[in-house]
Amino acid sequence: MSPEYAGRHQHQTVWQSVRNELLLLSEELNIKNLDKEIYNFTKTEEKQASQAIQKVTGIGNASS
């Protein structure tokens, strides 16, 4: 394998890794944005109930 080809191949591999990581981050951001949109359309009573359940159980207390 020529040094030129090896350099190009390594460059492509790095960019593929970067692209894959960006896609994963993009999916994570889309999920967080969807969660926020759903929360914004939730009724006040449902928000209060959800917060009470989270307080008691500790489920869903991850910071976003």
UniProtKB/TrEMBL annotation:
<protein>
    <submittedName>
        <fullName>Uncharacterized protein</fullName>
    </submittedName>
</protein>
